[in-house]
Amino acid sequence: MQKFLNTEHEKAYNLMLEKDYQQALKIFDDLIYLFPNEANLLSDRGVIFIHLNKKEEALKDFDQAVFLENSYGYRYASRAYARDFFGDTEAAIFDYEKAIKLDPEDAVSYNNMGLLQEKLGYKQKAQKNFELADEISKTQEEILIPQQPDLENEVPKVQEESSIKNKSFFSEFLKVFKSKKQFKEFIGFIKKGGKLK
Q: What is the extent of the structural domain holding 42?
């Protein structure tokens, strides 16, 4: 679950998920003025800058978030996504390597690094990372998901499918790291080749 600094942070985050980037940006700007050393604020604003295709601003925020929390693998993985989005795939791979070094159980980073290696033609390295991601995700699934009925998953699939269609990639990407259910769904999404159905 996303942790918010305050209600304004939550409001800005929800505006971002609703794709109201300009309104969200205004609130994040004000919050960062008041709390310049809050890595979550910088990272969230960096996501907005990606959506607005503002490379320098996005990378500056992700760089600062990494500087503030340089022992947290997620910061490097977030910057890796931004770097690849803006065309610097090799730097993105470097960041995923750092994320994995800090968190060797990060299946998503292994998978994403594999996708980038595959994109650059490094098929064997990519395959190795895909296998590691699968192995880790299976282990985490066994640990995180109890072997008993999950009442949360009893909700009709129709509701789930309609809500998934309305969500952006970034909103789903951010949730992966905050919820066991979302992690499981994301791993399934990856295994299906990035397709919702």
A: 1-69
